[in-house]
Amino acid sequence: MATDTDRKPILLTVDDDPGVSRAVARDLRRQYGEAYRVVRTESGPQALETLRELKLRGDPVAVLLADHRMPDMSGLEFLEEAMDLFPHARRALLTAYADTDAAIEAINIVDLDHYLLKPWDPPEEKLYPVVDALIEMWRSSDEQPVSRTQVVGHRWSARSFEVRDFLARNSVPYRWLSTEEPEGQRLLAAAGVEVTNIPLVVTAEGDSLVDPSMSKLAEKVGLSTVPTTDFYDVVIVGGGPAGLGAAVYAASEGLRTVLVERQATGGQAGQSSRIENYLGFPDGVTGTQLTDRARRQAHKFGAEILTTRDVVGLDVRASSRAVRFADGGEVVAHAVLLATGISYRKLEVPGADALTGRGVFYGSAATEAPACFGEDVYVVGAANSAGQAAVYLSRHARLVTLLVRGDQVERSMSYYLVRQIDEIPNIEVRLTTEVIGVHGDDHLEELTLCNTRAGTQETVRAGYLFVFIGAEPRTEWLERVVERDPRGFVLTGPDLVLDGQRPRGWDRDRDPYYLEASAPGVFAAGDVRANSIKRVASAVGEGAMAIQLLHTYLEHR
Ligand SMILES: Cc1cc2nc3c(=O)[nH]c(=O)nc-3n(C[C@H](O)[C@H](O)[C@H](O)COP(=O)(O)OP(=O)(O)OC[C@H]3O[C@@H](n4cnc5c(N)ncnc54)[C@H](O)[C@@H]3O)c2cc1C
């Protein structure tokens, strides 16, 4: 990580004569060394390479001081190329008396600010006043160091969206640059990456990653992906409110705890633009804020949190339980908590798959909302998640149309949201309406809507479609390990004891604990559990409760 000292603005010199080069650098350091970093190079190509590195690291360059006569590349040629990377840096040429014509010409070609005649003794009279003026001019450009991850991509690139969404949901601050912006192009050039190879991610340390996998990205931006030890007291699968809640309670009570999340912590709640009904937040809280706090709290107590690890198998062994990862490896513990929640159902209409991430989004209103400025956007769904998204998007979009399949929203949406929607002039609710076609070449352009009551169809122009049409548990990997209901939700506790009969294969002389699944030592909490209440508070509560039951399990194993 770059320190503050490293982030001083830079004065870069280039001169092929080592003696002169050292002398300029020495004089500059003496006068400006406290506030600026003086970087000395000895050829145009070397100076350009240094500038590319500085660009990727996000360091600001204030002044470029180039000798005119250099063998590989003249000072003029160097300044011309340097301008493409650092247009705000002020430029001066060091010339011999005989070269003043060239220097004057350079004033036009590279917008040269000054030329300095060699020798510049005494520097107090001949060098510092010029450099002072250059620094003064640069300061007015207000260029700041960039100490964040930077992403260069295209608005309609699904991979660019995935990367941005991943960073946002994992609370990694980043700066987004479109390939159409000059600064985006400068970063691509500095990394030597073609515009077709996006997204480009440049980390705060200046490493560039071209179209990275999520696990590579996670690792590079400082998120853990690998367990630090072979054995834990509890492995929690899923990093939504139930999993994070459980991690806080487990770790704070001294259990060796690891939480494994396939995508980003926060789960569904992390995607909520504003949760208004969670206890203790009278003004509401965004999903990102709640997730960030919960994650920090879990970390504080010593829980390990692994991201981008997809769990695809659970093995119940004699006295241990192991979860297996999709990309190989496993982590073993005394007990396992399943907190895998539910995932959005896909919109099964022609065209939707191809345009996902390119105008069609699932639960990502928060990441995309600013891009919807002045646009007409459509939201599909009638539950609170769709209502919240409509309210949030209405602050950015020209018009938000909420498409509802049924003939009313009151049945499925909280009263407070229905009222909010009623009062917002740029939200229109269309009942008995379904999306039956999604069209566009590069990105979403049109939707075909069907009014099922009137039996009519129409095609509308649309830049964005946000889909919130319910969700289902993805628990196929638990088949034959724990009992599930016909929809895939995990059965626990009393739901497993039918007419006094304990579940098949149950080998304990007690009933399963309240949140225990049909395999002893495997617990379930939150939305993935059959008959659970689908709320943030109940998920957090079940997470805490599961840990209490897990303690009892560990005591009586
Ligand atoms: C947009 C939106 C707004 C909402 N607003 C509210 C609200 O205002 N108030 C309210 O009370 N509720 C709200 N809800 C509902 C609430 O968010 C959920 O009930 C709650 O998040 C459930 O928590 P959970 O931990 O059980 O599951 P989830 O939040 O679904 O989290 C499960 C996590 O497990 C991970 N996972 C799944 N499978 C695997 C695997 N195999 N390996 C590794 N990781 C896995 C997922 O990636 C996910 O992060 C909202 C939901 C949505 C979608």
Topology record:
Elements lengths: L9 E5 L3 H15 L4 E5 L2 H14 L3 E7 L7 H11 L4 E6 L4 H10 L4 E4 L5 H4 L1 H12 L9 E5 L4 H12 L4 E5 L3 H10 L8 E3 L5 E3 L3 H7 L10 E7 L3 H12 L4 E4 L26 H14 L3 E3 L4 E6 L4 E5 L4 E9 L4 E2 L15 E3 L2 H4 L7 E5 L3 H10 L5 E5 L11 H9 L3 E4 L2 E7 L6 E6 L4 E6 L2 E4 L3 E2 L49 E3 L11 H20 L2
Parallel strand pairs: 1-2, 1-3, 3-4, 4-5, 6-7, 10-11, 10-15, 11-12, 15-26, 17-24, 18-19, 18-24, 19-20
Antiparallel strand pairs: 6-8, 8-9, 13-14, 14-15, 16-25, 21-22, 22-23
Helix pairs in contact: 2-3, 2-8, 10-11, 10-15, 13-14
The structure holds flavin-adenine dinucleotide.
The site of flavin-adenine dinucleotide (FAD) has 38 residues, from α10, α13 and α15.
Residue share in β-strands = 15-25%
The proportion of residues forming helix, as a percent range, comes to 25-40%
- Give average pLDDT, whole number: 93
Largest sheet: 7 strands, mixed
Give descriptors for this structure.
binds flavin-adenine dinucleotide; alpha/beta; five-stranded parallel sheet; single chain; seven-stranded mixed sheet; 557 residues
Description:
The chain is α/β, with parallel strands linked by helices. Helix content is 29%, strand content 22%. The chain is built from 15 helices and 26 strands. Strands 10, 11, 12, 13, 14, 15 and 26 form a seven-stranded mixed sheet that branches. Strand 11 (257-260), helix 11 and strand 12 form a beta-alpha-beta unit. Helix 2 packs parallel to helix 3 (75-85), helix 10 crosses helix 15 and helix 13 (384-393) runs parallel beside helix 14 (415-423). It starts with 9 loop residues before the first strand and ends with a helix. Bound molecules: flavin-adenine dinucleotide (FAD). The site of flavin-adenine dinucleotide (FAD) has 38 residues, from helix 10, helix 13 and helix 15.
